Amino acid sequence: MPETSRRRVLTGDTPTGSLHIGHWVGSVKRRVEIQETHDCFFLVANLHAFTTRADKPEEIRRDCIEVVRDALAMGVDPEKASIFLQTEVPAILELTYLFSMLLPYNRVMRNPTLKDELKVKGLEDNYSFGFPLYTVGQTADILAFRAHDVPVGEDQVPHLELTREVARRFNKYYCGVPDKAPDEEHESLGGVFPIPVADVGKVGRLIGTDGINKMSKSLGNSILITDTPKQVKKKLGKIYVGVDNRQPNDPGEVDPEKNPLFQYVETFIESPDEVAELRDRYARGDNIGDGVVKVRVAECISELLEPMQDRRKQYESDDVILDILHEGCRKAIAATEQTLEMAKEAASLKFFDRTISI
Ligand code: ATP
Ligand code: MG
Q1: Is the pTM of this model over 0.85?
Q2: Ligand closest in space to the Cα of 44
């Protein structure tokens, strides 16, 4: 792959179901912007989907296609960005093994997102050996591309911190980068890996329609990009808005800040004046309750989804998606084989040349 001066980007999704509006605000919107100016690689983390659904390979395969279809519908452009499958890129898996030696076991297990996932997904006493390993795998997803920027939601920030630690340690052990070198200087000091930064979207953690947890594919609290206006309205109608969001200092007024619905107001109603007015009227109880707010938010979300649903129709054929993936995988293999070679050379692991083609 020819080196360019553009910054490289890596991010992606686990194929655990269709994409939702949380993905849009947390990561995909940024991907659509950044694909114009950066070298973008968007991954379908199909191996990571096996951490919780190893018994459902066919479902995972189907979700891989759906996730790509959804991302294309949201505006990811396959002419500008490479979309690829994790399992077609062997360098990622090889780097995962190597990086697992650079991270203390207890450090991996302390990751707050990992702990939270084990809890909310009900896996606390019964998770596979591979479940915590996926966080190490994610460091390899990113570093295999020597990515500089990673557009993600807030929940991914601890994973990014782990990635930054691996990159620093690798560069120190195998490339002679001094211990206290500033992050931005690692590459110019001879490090194989740049120290990547998280690029968190405007809304880093959109709350789900349960009003409690992060909107999440696998928690059934999502508004999907394929939802019809009727479905959006129904889901929003059920959103839990909190038991009592009265202001402590003024029991007559309600506090929009404590009402999860107002995150949707801020996120999906475009006009700042309308948002301010709704907030004000709601706080004063001026002839406006949750119902009115929900209907307005539902309208705005459906307006956002309509062009996505139109665009999605262009990608109905699975063969078209597979062709896009094939091309994306080729580019991803080229980029990561180059990184792997550099990493192996640095770590005295390179013995022979190899070529991989698909
Ligand atoms: P799962 O439940 O399987 O973990 P998920 O809904 O969390 O699914 P991921 O594939 O793990 O989706 O995440 C893809 C990207 O979307 C990540 O960058 C993640 O941070 C972001 N993201 C996911 N959910 C939200 C959300 N509710 N708000 C903001 N960003 C989100
Ligand atoms: Mg997730």
Answers
A1: yes
A2: 1
- Structure tokens, 255: 């506090």
Do residues 225 and 211 touch, judged by C-beta distance below 8 A? no
Q: Encode burial over 120-156: b for 16+ CB neighbours within 10 A, e otherwise.
A: eeeeeeebeeebbbbbbbbbbbbbbbbbbbbbbbbbb
Cβ contacts of residue 260 below 8 Å, gap of 6+?
207, 211, 212, 239, 240, 241, 242
Confidence of residue 346 (pLDDT cuts 50, 70, 90): very high
Total length of the chain: 358
Q: What is the identity of the amino acid at 64?
A: C
The crossing angle, in degrees rounded to 10, of helices 261-268 and 272-284 is 160
Instruction: Tell me the best of 10, 11, 24, 27 to mutate to test the pocket of ligand 1, counting ligand atoms within 8 Å of each CB and taking the most.
Output: 27
- Give the Cα separation of 358 and 330 in Å (integer): 7
Q: Which residues pair with residue 151 across a beta bridge? A: 199
Categorize the per-residue pLDDT at 245 as very low, low, confident or very high, splitting at 50, 70 and 90: low
Q: Which of 9, 10, 11, 13 gets mutated to test ligand 1 (max ligand atoms within 8 A of its CB)?
A: 13
